[in-house]
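Appendix B, Record 12. Input sequence as logged:
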Amino acid sequence: MARKIKYKEISEAMEEIAKPGIGTSSRPSIGLDKSVGEFYFLNIDQVIPFKNQARKSFDKEDLSRLADSIKIHGVCQPLTVIKESNDKYEVISGERRLRAAKLVGLTKVPCIILKEANHADSIALIENIHRNDLTPIELGIAFKRLLEFSVFDSQEHLAKSISVSKGTVSEYIAFSEFPEEVRNKLIEHNITSRSKLRSITKALRKNDVQKVNTIISGCSDQNKVPILQFFLFGNEIKVQDKGLKNIDDLGKHKLKSILQKFIDAL
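Logged structural output:
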């Protein structure tokens, strides 16, 4: 089923892919009059993640908050998809929305279907590099693929297009070439400090695996913030709760749930 919605102005890259061919009268699945577009509700089991997604990690709390919003308001922004097979569509943009929609049990999601799939990888990567929550390694993977797909003919061209220095592009690509085990650990622990990543680069050049693990462990420990601590002194229990001021309402709700489990077990 097609419906018309107000749609924001799209990028030149997206427009080039979705527009009808010269001399044709067909209209693409996405409207390109820069004000109105068409979308379709697809069964959620027909929509699958993009196989070349640069983003490797999705924050569980972030997904939970998005799911709560979708439960109230629905999926406000359609997913962008391409036809993968007879009954499957790959998500080019909007995998977070897809995951959150599944969490709340939606059976259908609104999707804009790209007419041409030839440059799907490029569009997905361009969408990703404009996100502000990707790690340097994930960005490096995206940069590298954009160059491999010849979307940009050089690191200089890519850097200028996204308004960063060539040095940043080169460095992030170098980070993306870490051994897979190291990359996965860094993404898992959300380690984004360029100084730490540079230290890991030096350690890897010396094949100092122990140093690499020490750096990763140290960063993980720094990300841990004490919230509530109990100390037993003889028959007296003392509590330190200064960390409570550092958590938001969602964190407090989760803490109450955890503490209740301990109370029930007493």
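The chain has eleven helices and eight strands.
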